[in-house]
Amino acid sequence: MVLSLNDKWIWDFWLAKNAADWHMYFLQADNTLPDPEMRHRNVTQGHAVSQDLVNWTFKGTCFEPAKAKSWDDWTTWTGSTLQGPDGTWHLFYTGTSHENEGLHQRIGHATSQDMHSWVRVGDGLCLDLVGPNAQRYEEYTPGHWHDRAMRDPWVMKNPDGEGWLMYFTARVPGRSEANAGGAIGFATSPDLYTWTLQPPIYTGGDFGQLEVPQVFKFGEHWYCTFCTAAGHWSEGYKKYNSETPVTGSSYLMAKSHLGPWTAAKPFLDGRNPCNRYAGKIIERDGKLFIMGFIQFDEAGKFIGKISDPVPLATSADGTLSVMEN
User: Fold this and answer.
1) DSSP string covering 168-208, please?
2) Per the domain annotation, does 2 fall within a domain?
3) Could you tell me the pTM of the whole model?
């Protein structure tokens, strides 16, 4: 039973676990829009709850763009949700503004006590491309790439000790091939409230963008999942991985959460036209599963709904593969 809504398209999503409940947060837009691509600029965040990742109860809209003029008054896109040490829940999200024509992405922060009603911390803005490491990131360059990429924050506890880590979709400057500029950005915080921009954690030159990263450890390996389009494979990655470029989700591997990271081959979960996108990997009972948003039906019509979990196989060297029915 996939998660779908009669009156809305659903796409990028993220999960948070609280006791027996799985909370899913997702981007949503009215499916009466004339063109599905318009959903990106007419977006709010929805919320659903499940105990088995299959049967979901929709809780309604839980977050939306700022109503007054602000850095996030146009869109509030993909993020992550986690609980702080005092029990407060934290939402980190992507924002864009009308003032910048939606082209400059920044990262915001809101908190909640009930996992549904979110309140911005100050004006919400918690991370921008500022400070001594800002030059390590690509600013908006018309004709080279379509936006200033700083989005899809994935926040987690520092496994090495104190503090918190943020990974996000980014790009690096100085690459003549646009598809070689995709990167995973990085920031650190002592308390979830004050963030410092660090150099990118991955600049491999494999893709134009690595969207919706998720970092986790399973067994002896660290993984950073991401999604990208067939048209965003770099020439270097196409030489490294000779399969036909596809659109979907894949991953980087490393022995540490700080890298060095290596892009996987074969590509994990891709297809043309794409089936699942913006994949999220879940561990249950010592096994891994992948979920993603389903873009199209068999006739090629955009439908926007969330898939059920599909099991993954893990090989001896840690590489992953999808176990389709």
Assistant:
1) EEEE-S--SSGGG-EEEEEEEESSSSS-EEEEEEE--S-BS
2) no
3) 0.97
Task: Write out pLDDT tens, residues 162-179.
Answer: 999 999 999 999 999 999
Tokens linked to 197: 């921009």
User: What sign does the dihedral 309-227-12-112 (CA atoms) show?
Assistant: positive
pLDDT classification of 297: cutoffs 50, 70, 90? confident
- 10 neighbors 28 (Cβ within 8 angstroms): yes
Question: How many helices and strands in the chain, by DSSP H and E?
Answer: 1, 22
Structurally, how many domains does the chain consist of? 1
Burial of 214 (0-12, 13-18, 19+ CB in 10 A): buried
Nearest to 270 by CA among 241, 239, 302: 241
Q: What is the CATH number of the domain that holds 301?
A: 2.115.10.20
Quick: pLDDT tens for 197-232: 999 999 999 999 999 999 999 999 999 999 999 999
Rounded distance between C-alpha atoms, residue 242 and residue 289, angstroms:
26
For 244, residues 6+ apart whose C-beta sits below 8 A from its C-beta are: 230, 272
Could you tell me what percent of the chain has a pLDDT over 90?
Answer: 96
- Domain holding 40, by residue range, is 8-322
The helix (run of H) or strand (run of E) holding residue 263 is: strand 262-263
Q: Which two tokens stand for residue 16?
A: 């948070």
Could you give the percent of the chain with pLDDT greater than 70?
Answer: 99
In a domain, 293, yes or no: yes
